[in-house]
Each structure stands twice: as C-alpha cells, then as structure tokens.
Input
Amino acid sequence: MTIIKSVYLNSSTNNKFMHSNHRKLYRYILISFLGLILFSSFKKDYFEVSKQLDIFATLFKELNIYYIDDTEPDKLMNKAIRSMLETLDPYTTYLSEEEAENFKTHTTGEYAGIGAAIKKHEDDIIVFQIYEGFAADKAGIKAGDILLEIDGNIMEGKSTREVSSILKGSLGTTTSVKIIRPNVEGTLNLNIKREKITVKSVPYFGMVNSETGYIVLNSFSRKATLDVSNAFGELKKLGMKSLILDFRDNPGGLLSQAVEVSNIFLAKKTLIVETRGKIEEWNRKHYTQIKAKDEKIPIVLLTNYGTASASEIVAGAFQDLDRAVIMGSRTYGKGLVQQPRDLTYGTQLKITIAKYYIPSGRSIQARDYFDRNDDGSVRVIADSLRVKYKTRAGRIVFDGGGILPDIEVEDDTLSPYSKFLMGENLFFEYSVKFCNSISNQIDINNFELKNEDLQDFNNFIIASNKVYKSKLDAKIIELRNLAEKEDVLKTLNPSIQELETKMKIEHKNIFEKNKEQINKLLSLTIINNKYYERGRYMYNLKHDNTISQATILLKDKVKYNNIISKN
Output
C-alpha cells in the first residue's frame, strides 16, 4: 500500500457454473488475502490475522455460491467492511472512490464545479449558499433557486449527494441548469461553465475597531497557513495591535497546517504537538520551523464544541504556552490522528494511527473508544478523573474532555421555537422573498429589520401552515391518551382542558416571546443571502456576544496579562 504523506486530523448459481464476475471477484479476494497472509507470516503475532482472513475469504466464497438468491458481492463487501470498522473509533473509515475524492476536496479546498452549496427541503433541491465571485455567482444563480433539471436530467427524487456529483465535473466544461426562482414566473435556463473552486480556509478577515483585527479560520486545509499569514499581513497594514482568532466550528484538517499556523505566532523550535502511535515512525515531536511573524501581539482565540482536532491542537498549544486567552465554550475533544492510505480502485482507508499530546503533555481526547461501558456505549472521561497539568507560566489545565477555555462564554442557545423555524426552512424562505423584493443595497453595519418586517414574517409563518408543536404539547396528548386508557379521563378532563387552553395562549404569544432572537437570526440569514459569507461575518462583528467580549478583554491589558500569567 502507498503511504500518503499528509496526516489528517461526512440468478442463483452453483459450484460448477459460477458466474464469471463472481469467479474474478473470488480470485481477486483470494490473491489479495494470500498476499496479506504471506506478509503476515513473517511475524508470529500476525497468525490470528492470517487465520481470520482465510476464514472470511472462504465464507464469502461459499455465501455467494450457495445462497438461495442472487447476491451483490460489492454491497456485501461494503457492508462487511463498514460494520467491521464500526467496532473501532468513528474516525477510522472506509472511503469509496467518490468519498475519497470528496475527502481530497476537503483537505485541498479545491474542486471543479460551479461554486454553490445545495440542500434538500421536502422534494426540492435548493441552492442555499453561493460562493462569491465563482461560476454560479457570475451566471446569476441566487440563494433560493430550485434546481429542476441539469443537462436535461430531472432532479426530482435525487439526493443532494447525487446532484452535487452531477454539478461537479471537468474543468472548463459547461452545464445547463433549469431553475425555478421564487416570486418569478416561469422557469429560467442558465449555462454555467465549471471552474476551479477554491474554498477558502479563511473566509473572512477584517478590523473590529481601529486596533483589533479579526480572522476566521474554517479549516486546516493545505492553504490554511498561507491564508492566515496573508490575512495577518493585511490587518497589520491597517494598524492592528491585537487579534481575535475565530476557530468556532472548525473541524480540523492537516496536522502539518496546525503546526505551521501556530508558527505564525510562536518562535522557531517551539514544540506544538507530539504524536504517539503503535508504529514507531509515528512517534514524533512537531516543532515550529521558521521565525514567527509576531510573537507578542495579544490574541484571544475563540472556541466552541465544534472546534475539533487540528484546531484543538493550536488552541491547546496556545493555552499551554500562554500565547493567547482561550474564550468561548469547551471544545470537542478529539485527540486522535488519522492518515489516509490508498487502497485499490481509487478507494481509501482513513485510519487512526496515533494520539496527539500538546506541549504540557496532556491529551485532550474526551472519549475512550477502546474501553467501553458494559452496554457497548463509549466512555466519556469524567471531570473528576481528569489529570492536572501546568502551562509554561504555571497555570493549571486539565487533560481529557477537550480544551476548557480560560473565559467561558456560551454560544447563544436557540429556543425550541427558533429551531422549529430553522428546521422548517422558514428563515431561509422568507429571506429569499425579502431579498427578491428589494432592489437597493443593504448597509450591513446599520441593518435593522423594522417591526412591520417582523410582523410580515409572522404572517409568512402562519400562511405556511407549518404548526409548531412543543414537547409539552406532546406530553399533554400523551396524558389525555393515558387517562382514557386508565378510565379516568372524565375526572381529569377539566384539568387537561385547562392545560390545553393555556398552551394555546402560549403559542399565540410565542413569536413575541422569541422576537429578539428571531430578529437576529432572520437578519443574519438575509445578510448572508444578499452578501454571501462575507456579509454574514461582517454582520457578526457588531452582533456576536463572544466577539464583543473578546474585544473588551483586549482593551483591558491588565486583565488580559493577569489571565495568561500564573494565578
């Protein structure tokens, strides 16, 4: 097998007359297994592996020859592989040829396509995000457009994965798209020339105020260091004296990029992370290699539960080395390193090869996939079992359970009603209607919805006939059914009816009770549809509570320094 250098942290038959495809498959499996068995025979420890491979090859052959109905060997093998890997950690996965290509896109941040994200809502495939400046944007595709046909092929009934695969293709080729646009009569036919789409690891950077810069890092793809470095350089030109790094919802990426991004702010020859695995070559200490761009600038690094893997390495290293104040909520807790390994026919195995340990020596891995509870569930490391470590300045930090921020600021929690509106696509649908109804530009910094806009949205919700049902509504129905079953409904009915009446009043006022959060979410969705991802981040600079608190902290130099020094 070829080792990929990058390490990454979604008719019956009988024995005499076998189908020729089956014979080829068995021959291939047996030859492959024989090779593995011969390889295994060089080490006595691999005898059990050889034995089990031999048993499996024999079973697979017998099953496909004698089973009463036709079998599909590829589906059987796929199921067997995935079921086997399910007994390990969730990051060790088998990637089909298509999945391997998508994984490559994730690590490189590049693919050939039109530059639009799609989602399925009810029976429609909807464009919900346009990447600014790319093919779809230039062709006039808008958020909310419904895809009817692509190159004459009807999209109804297809999954988002199938449609996404159709939209991607060879660089420079043209695809014809038929769409329905809300509030526009008839259909539209657009020709879109596929081009190289580069998904930026830094989708936005800018100044929060005259002294504080802000950089969003979405992933540690191959250009992460270059993107962060360029953004940092541009902000320095604008007079930046302090920095907010936003790692919220960053799922990670390449280990090498985690080290190199750290190197922008940490001195040469600084230990960032150590990996320890079963194979000796993966027991390595990873140090910064070049002179830092800026070792002194005050930094607040934002995290949440979606901050994972490579992003936790950087956040953890900055905390252990007292290089930044970590602010937000506890991170995911993924301290495992994956390596993609090439298999045959374009497939891959993404396999966990090591655990990583940040400079203090601690692991942030929150779940023990190899020591499970009696019921098979994964054990989560209890806070009481977490071990103390010390940062370079002597501050107490803990292993396991991710990175605990120096200052905890929880993300805004969505109310059940807001979740309902989001799940029913109502924020998005109304934002499309709103954007299509206005021809003028929006001032992002001063954008506010009027009361009549919010009332119009409430009317839009009512007209959709999508009825909100709370958990309490379900419990009242359950109570009524149980009372009837127990033959006490006549006695309890007045009380149940009183509850139902009170819940009707609650539902009548529910929009007003959630108005502040609805206003913010709807405004953000409108800005995103009008000015894409860039607009959403610009809007958040003024309305995100965690960014506001980070900005306040960076102004208070005494408090900042007290946090990162020994308590």
Q: What stands out?
A: The longest helix spans residues 515-543. The mean pLDDT is 88. The longest strand covers residues 348-357.
